Amino acid sequence: MVNIRRATMEDLLEMQACNLACLPENYQMKYYFYHILSWPQLLYVAEDQGGKNKIVGYVLAKMEEDAETSHGHITSLAVLRSHRKLGIATRLMRAAEHDMVECFGAEYVSLHVRKSNRAAFHLYSETLGFKVHDIEKKYYADDEDAYDMRKDLRSHPCKRGGKGLTDSLASGVGSLSIEGASDSTPSNADDHAPSNAAGDSGVDQYAEGDDRRGKRSTRGGRR
Fold first, then answer.
1. What's the rounded Cα separation, in Å, for the pair 151 and 144?
2. In sequence order, what E strands does 96-155 have?
3. What is the pLDDT of residues 100-114, one digit of tens each?
């Protein structure tokens, strides 16, 4: 069983390990502390409860400070290759979006994704409803361009006073069985991604993170 729950301080090392296994965009531990101390509601982990309670995925999110319009930002999302095609990334994202609206009244949520990461782009655009707002040239440390994507949250059930529905949605991400998942019919965007979505390196191509390492002096510094 995989359980989706809010992250705690004790999860940060495993979140960082998951990040290092999945993404070229990596962060110092202080950046994880900055997120969880500032926005503890917006960090979620996927925990495989099949024995060792291993963290197999996470979403690292925040609210943009000093913004005229209240909005959230997805700093990093990753799921280990061993647990892909189970809809975990979708559930992590929806949990974070729910609390952005419920706790902070977010009007929209933004993220960046590499132009070459077609699987992640498919997840964000087709399943989660994000749209391309802009293209940021040479955004990443290796000079690859990024799509600046946004999702309007003004029509989120929380905004319409549908607290009962959103509570149900939040509880719905609580757990899912992964036993026999390879034989099940896929139901999410990451399930329908191209078969080559994960490279030979084992990197989870659904994962995505912000990175300006080549353009700043401190890795993982605040954006």
1. 23
2. 108-114, 131-136, 146-152
3. 999 999 999 999 999
What is the amino acid identity at position 16?
Q
- Tokens 């974070």 found at: 96
Question: Which amino acid is residue 190, in one-letter code?
Answer: D
Do β-strands 71-79 and 108-114 pair in parallel, antiparallel, or remain unpaired?
parallel
Q: How far is CA 47 from the centre of its chain?
A: 14
- Using alpha carbons, list the distances in angstroms from residue 75 to 19, 160, 167: 11, 27, 24
Strands (E), the chain: 2-6, 44-48, 54-63, 71-79, 108-114, 131-136, 146-152, 175-176, 208-209
- Cβ burial, residue 158 (10 Å; 0-12/13-18/19+): buried
Is the distance from CB of 62 to CB of 72 less than 8 angstroms?
yes
pLDDT in tens, 108-139: 999 999 999 999 999 999 999 999 999 999 99
What are the distances in angstroms from CA 45 to CA 39, 94, 107, 122, 200? Answer: 14, 12, 24, 22, 25
